[in-house]
Amino acid sequence: MSSDVIFAQIWNSARSLPARWKNLPENPFMVSAVFEDLLNRWSREEVLREFGVRLDARLPDEYPWANVTVMVAGEADIECARVARSTNSAILTSDSDLLVHDLGVAGSVVFLNSLQLTESTEGSNQASNLSLCGQGITPHDLCRHLGMPNIQRFAYELLTDPHAPFSKLLRLAKEYKYGDDEKRSVEYCDFLREYECGSGPTFNAASKGEDEKLFTQGMDPRVSELFWQFVSPETYTQASQFHVYLGVLHEDSSRRCAWEQSRFYRSLGYAILNLSRRAIAAHESEPQAQTVYEFVRRGTRIVAEQITLAGEKTVFSDLDCLQRRLDLARTTPPTAKHLQGFLSKGFMGKATDWGDIHLLAQIQAVLYSLRMLQQLLQIAAKTYDLGVYRDILKDLPPLYLLMKSRHDMVQGFSQENCRKVVHQMIKTYG
């Protein structure tokens, strides 16, 4: 079976979501999982086994996409804009903020939701050809067509008054001249800083040793962003306020945020990273962090919650605790009967309800937080002696196995296995 046929089957198998489900948040683990899979999962052998497709022999290496999959320092937007500007290429994205960056004369943005698979026949043999098409927007051409000096000015006016009609925003963008309003000029300059090319460190594979390359390029995106904040706070933070954005999970918004149950693991990871940077700061003029802010859901809002970083004594006490129980911080667990039902059927009662959805979100939050802790341990161990705790999570499986759906989770448990697992959990944890 050809790769084109497989691709068409996968693409066309996607069904449109009902309108009432279209406002669900995106999968918060998608980028992390795709990045990890391109680096470490999709080898020639695995693609053949999973899809029955033999990859083109001209593709390099056993893992064809590993050498072109790069985790840049900080957030990726600025680096994507730089590449688009220098190569006149398009950025595939769902983020409209990319339009505001300087993409040059021919750089463009193609939104993922505009992509369509088209099929055509050409030649006497009527062979079928598949094409993937999308709507591209080139900011330079758009501004020329609308008579605007640049798209940044329009974006600023939209941010200032998001409910204003398009015609008003366009007029303000055209008419404004720097210095007309001193306060707005200052605010506009502050707005532009987010979209300017940073002066911080950038990744250069040729200049890195193999160990350094491994631990900087294998990071989860959220871990990478936090790491570079510690390395270069003047570039990647505001007033040295270290922060992490945790995605909105598919959960019950009337309940406590699912991320709350696993904060212990993330806090431990942040504190370990901080201790490792303090070891370096003893020889360099690097600031020491006291807190990290997590941006999470609270009710129907997104808020910044402050986490105070623990000292060395508390960190090693917590590591000892983790070694004895790699599980949730103590909460009131479901009954044995309910837990067995969830593992064997995917729901605890007679049918799926919000309690089941929220429990799955809590499970995902715990597993992802353990993954973050695993990577932060690996980073810290480069400069800080963690002793026997260095490899405490070394056997954690890849993300695509950690973040199984309820359907896949149920398939992995027989009734007998569920009974044994639940019995052991109750025996161990009470």
Structure overview:
It is built from 18 helices and eight strands. The chain is mostly helical. It has helices at 3-12, 30-40, 44-51, 77-87, 139-146, 151-160, 166-175, 182-193, 210-217, 221-231, 233-236, 263-281, 312-324, 336-345, 354-380, 399-402, 406-411, 415-429, and strands at residues 90-93, 108-111, 116-122, 127-133, 136-137, 242-245, 291-298, 301-308. The longest helix is centred in the C-terminal third of the chain and has 27 residues, at 354-380. It has three domains: 1-69, no CATH class; 78-119 and 135-199, no CATH class; 205-429, no CATH class. The protein is globular.
Mean pLDDT: 79
Counted up, domains total 3
Low-confidence stretches: 199-213, 327-332
**Helix content range:** 40-55%
Instruction: Quickly give the structural class.
Output: mainly alpha
- Rounded radius of gyration (Å): 25 Å
Number of helices: 18
Strand order of the largest sheet: 1-2-5
Compile the SSE list and pairings:
Layout lengths: L2 H10 L17 H11 L3 H8 L25 H11 L2 E4 L14 E4 L4 E7 L4 E7 L2 E2 L1 H8 L4 H10 L5 H10 L6 H12 L16 H8 L3 H11 L1 H4 L5 E4 L17 H19 L9 E8 L2 E8 L3 H13 L11 H10 L8 H27 L18 H4 L3 H6 L3 H15 L1
Parallel strand pairs: 1-2, 6-7
Antiparallel strand pairs: 2-5, 3-4, 7-8
Helix pairs in contact: 6-7, 12-13, 12-15, 14-18
